[in-house]
């Protein structure tokens, strides 16, 4: 008898919860199923797919905590993914689109918008968030992101299979959010050039193409001891600054390029640069025998600089702040900053002080 009473009480509690949920949803002026654009648990997001009306599309897939792949080929920028996920979490509805503007907004969304599909790990069985069983990846939200309102403070959005668009916003953000849903692949690319920790490096080849006697090879023996080889003579050098060499090798842990130029510069111009004599060829082989190669080139940039010898201005035909480079087996043409790259552009004489 006592057991039957407990079952009865449990059923009553479930009914009360169900009634409360129904009343809560019905009392809202917004239908939750077509206006709830926000993602509460962004940590469970595993994939984001976006496509625009020009069929430009990007797919970001989580491969590990904090690591995402872009279109199955490139590393995605962690900072930009974080920004997008925070936007998805903070999304709020400002108001439904009014009847007077409804048709115009729908036409605009049909002509120019980005379709967004969000996938998360969700339990197949979820009982009032108490009992969660059989987690799986599933498409939890699909919506369309349009343009901005006239005051640029809101963004038109429409849930899939709905005819009611809404004006959305992000609290504390003055502006519209459409640019955060870009379908341009380059916008999501990670700018990493080298990401090699000391223990991951097997060897580094530094070829100073235009400087005689400055090319060398560094071999990592046991993370503390290095072998320095003069590439011109083949000689293994015994006299060199060990601290400088260790600092040099550890500098490859985080080196990034400034901007990707492959899709912004004319291919004829890119080919003309690549046909010039390179400045450097940097080749790293890691402990898995994977190779990363970067080839740098001078960038023209006529500028007057002060010459201490003549005590006057001298015309410098090449950019003293930036240079070009090719990455990823020559597929990418990028812009580098000497300020960032100088620490890994050390000639042999820097370690041996032979000059």
3D structure, described in words:
It is elongated and about 80 Å long. It is 24% helix and 38% strand. It has helices at 2-27, 32-35, 78-90, 99-111, 185-188, 242-250, 267-274, 338-341, 348-352; strands at residues 45-52, 57-64, 67-70, 74-75, 92-96, 114-127, 131-148, 155-159, 166-169, 192-194, 201-208, 216-220, 226-230, 236-237, 255-256, 259-260, 280-286, 291-297, 300-307, 312-318, 322-327, 332-337. It has 355 residues and is of the alpha+beta class. Residues 18-28 have low confidence and may be disordered. It folds into two domains: 34-188, no CATH class; 192-352, no CATH class. The chain is built from nine helices and 22 strands.
What is this entry, summarized?
The chain has about 350 residues and is an alpha+beta fold. It is built from nine helices and 22 strands.
Number of domains: 2
Classify the beta-strand content into a percent band.
Answer: 35-45%
- Report Rg: 29 Å
Uncertain runs are 18-28
- Percent range of helical residues: 10-25%
Task: For the record, give the distance between the C-alpha atoms at the N and C termini, rounded to a whole number.
Answer: 98 Å
Classify the secondary structure makeup into a structural class.
alpha+beta
Please outline the major beta sheet: 9 strands, antiparallel
Largest sheet, spatial ordering of strands: 4-3-2-1-6-7-8-9-5
Number of strands: 22
Using the alpha-carbon principal axes, give the shape.
elongated
Mean pLDDT reading: 87
What is the tally of helical segments?
9
The oligomeric status of these chains comes to single chain
């Amino acid at each position: 008898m006592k057991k039957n009473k407990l079952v009865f009480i449990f059923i009553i509690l479930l009914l009360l919860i169900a009634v409360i949920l129904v009343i809560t949803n019905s009392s809202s002026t917004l239908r939750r199923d077509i206006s709830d654009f926000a993602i509460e648990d962004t940590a469970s997001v595993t994939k984001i797919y976006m496509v625009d009306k020009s069929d430009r599309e990007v797919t970001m897939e989580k491969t590990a905590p904090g690591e995402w792949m872009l279109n199955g080929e490139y590393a995605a920028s962690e900072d930009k993914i974080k920004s997008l996920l925070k936007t998805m979490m903070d999304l709020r509805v400002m108001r439904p689109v009014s009847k007077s503007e409804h048709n115009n907004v729908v036409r605009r969304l049909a002509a120019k918008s980005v379709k967004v599909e969000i996938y998360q790990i969700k339990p197949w069985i979820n009982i009032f968030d108490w009992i969660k069983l059989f987690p799986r990846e599933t498409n939890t939200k699909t919506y369309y992101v349009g343009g901005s309102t006239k005051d640029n403070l809101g963004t038109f959005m429409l849930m899939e299979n709905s005819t009611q668009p809404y004006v959305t916003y992000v609290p504390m953000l003055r502006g519209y959010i459409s640019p955060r849903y870009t379908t341009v692949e380059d916008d999501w690319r990670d700018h990493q050039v080298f990401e090699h920790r000391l223990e991951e490096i097997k060897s580094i080849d530094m070829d100073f193409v235009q400087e005689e006697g400055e090319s060398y090879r560094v071999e990592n023996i046991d993370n503390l001891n290095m072998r320095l080889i003069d590439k011109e003579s083949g000689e293994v050098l015994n006299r060199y600054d060990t601290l400088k060499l260790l600092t040099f090798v550890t500098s490859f842990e985080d080196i990034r390029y400034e901007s990707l130029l492959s899709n912004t510069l004319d291919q004829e111009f890119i080919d003309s640069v690549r046909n010039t004599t390179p400045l450097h060829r940097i080749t790293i082989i890691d402990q898995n025998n994977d190779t990363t190669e970067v080839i740098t080139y001078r960038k023209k940039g006529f500028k007057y600089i002060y010459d201490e010898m003549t005590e006057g201005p001298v015309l410098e035909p090449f950019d003293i702040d930036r240079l070009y480079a090719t990455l990823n087996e020559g597929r990418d043409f990028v812009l580098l900053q000497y300020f960032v790259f100088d620490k890994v552009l050390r000639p042999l004489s820097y370690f041996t002080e032979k000059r």
